[in-house]
Every structure is written in structure tokens, then in C-alpha cells.
Design a protein that fits this description.
- The complex is a heterodimer of chains A (about 110) and B (about 110).
- Chain A has about 110 residues and is mainly beta.
- Chain A is about 0% helix and about 55% strand.
- Chain A has no helices and eleven strands.
- In chain A, the strands form two sheets. In chain A, strands 2, 4, 5, 6, 9, 10 and 11 form a seven-stranded mixed β-sheet that branches. A four-stranded antiparallel β-sheet of chain A has the order 1-3-8-7, with no helix packed on it.
- Chain B is mainly beta.
- Chain B contains no helices and eleven strands.
- In chain B, strands 2, 4, 5, 9, 10 and 11 form a six-stranded mixed β-sheet that branches.
- In chain B, a hairpin with a 2-residue loop joins β6 and β7.
- Chain B is globular.
- At the A-B interface, β5 and β9 of A face β5 and β10 of B.
Chain lengths: ~110, ~110
């Protein structure tokens, strides 16, 4: 149980285009989903917290107009990187939480912007 | 931002050796978690510690939470190549947000 999937697992896009990443909780309802970014050889940094049906809360320094987060249902959250640039290339990981404290992590999405 | 410093940053050892990874903070943790992450995958929870002085064992892994709840350690006995990965400590904050440590990259070779 407690499986979280992400799609796509990897994506390459051209600079200036937008990319959407999906995060799904497969066997539970996620009241809260979290989005993290991880640069090579570094740790995970929380980008934003999304609760179903409400606006996402962004961490300091994360541009909300660039990283659009939608949590339209209890099993799906999406992260859209708008007008992507090479410096947005990173490993994006989501996690989901039900009514407990533990977060269940997705397998990550590697984004490369050329 | 309350940083979690991990040491060492990188560790390369041979199979069969023992090792210890440390996680330190200047502030008190309400609880602390340890994760292991393999390349190209999300982190996987190993353990959660909540009580000062607590020791938990998971096969060859021993986790200790400091008495003052400001530090924690992960000890691996007789490391195996399958233990290779990035080890991360994380504290739980408000709204269940996780703040991850700086990470320790472990490489175990034959």
C-alpha cells in the first residue's frame, strides 16, 4: 500500500516551453501533497505544499508563477514548470500524505531543459 | 531555516566495514526520520525516532536519537554493496513539512 507514482519519469524540453509533471497517490487519498526539487549530488528542497481544493503554499524563494501547482483531486497533483530554462533542469519529487504524518514519495521526474 | 548538517558528506568503504553517519542541528527536533535514496528514485523511509535517547534497530542498521533531541546517528554494521545510496535525515515541522539534511552519500565496494 501507499504507492505514489509520477509521470513522466523523465522529460526533455526546449527552453521557453512549459512542462507538466503529474503526481498520483494510487491506493490512498492524499489530503496533502508536497513538491521537492533535487539538484545533482544535493539533498531535497521543499518547493511547495498543496492541499486538495486550495491554493498551494510556496516556500521562500520559489516563484509561484513559474511553478504552477494544482491539486484538483485527492489523488492527483500537478506541477507545471512554465517558460522553462536550463537552470530549471533538476530532479522533481513529489510526496503524498493521507491523514497521518508519514509522507510517501514518488519515484521522481528528471527534467532536462535544452 | 533550521539546517540539518550531516557528516560525512561522502563515504566510500569496502564491504564488511562498519560506518556511522551523523545528523546535527542547533535546535530541538520533535521527531526525526532517516531515509535512503537510490539514484533516480525517491527517498524511502527507514525509521522515525521521537524520544530522546531512543535507539532503534533495523537489521544491520542502528539508529540513535540524542538525549537532547538535537542530533541523531545511523550506524551500519558489516556494510553490503546494497547499502550504497544517499542517506538523508529529515525533521518534521509545522504542517508536516519535512526539512532534509545535507545528505551523506555512501558507496560500498567489494
Amino acid at each position: 500500500g501507499a504507492v505514489v507514482s509520477q509521470h513522466p519519469s523523465w522529460v526533455i524540453c526546449k527552453s521557453g516551453t512549459s512542462v507538466k509533471i503529474e503526481c498520483r497517490s494510487l491506493d490512498f487519498q492524499a489530503t496533502t501533497m508536497f513538491w521537492y526539487r533535487q539538484f545533482p549530488k544535493q539533498s531535497l528542497m521543499l518547493m511547495a505544499t498543496s492541499n486538495e481544493g486550495s491554493k498551494a503554499t510556496y516556500e521562500q524563494g520559489v516563484e509561484k508563477d513559474k511553478f504552477l501547482i494544482n491539486h484538483a483531486s485527492l489523488t492527483l497533483s500537478t506541477l507545471t514548470v512554465t517558460s522553462a530554462h536550463p537552470e530549471d533542469s533538476s530532479f522533481y519529487i513529489c510526496s503524498a500524505r493521507d491523514f497521518g504524518v508519514e509522507q510517501y514519495f514518488g519515484p521522481g521526474t528528471r527534467l532536462t531543459v535544452t | 531555516t533550521q539546517l540539518l548538517e550531516q557528516s560525512p558528506q561522502f563515504l566510500s568503504i569496502q564491504e564488511g566495514e562498519n560506518l556511522t553517519v551523523y545528523c546535527n542541528s542547533s535546535s530541538v527536533f520533535s521527531s526525526l526520520q532517516w531515509y535512503r535514496q537510490e539514484p533516480g528514485e525517491g527517498p524511502v523511509l527507514l525509521v522515525t525516532v521521537v524520544t530522546g535517547g531512543e535507539v532503534k534497530k533495523l537489521k544491520r542498521l542502528t539508529f540513535q536519537f540524542g538525549d537532547a533531541r538535537k542530533d541523531s546517528s545511523l550506524h551500519i554494521t558489516a556494510a553490503q554493496t546494497g547499502d550504497t545510496g544517499l542517506y538523508l535525515c529529515a525533521r518534521t515541522g509545522t504542517a508536516s513539512k519535512l526539512t532534509f539534511g545535507t545528505g551523506t552519500r555512501l558507496q560500498v565496494t567489494l
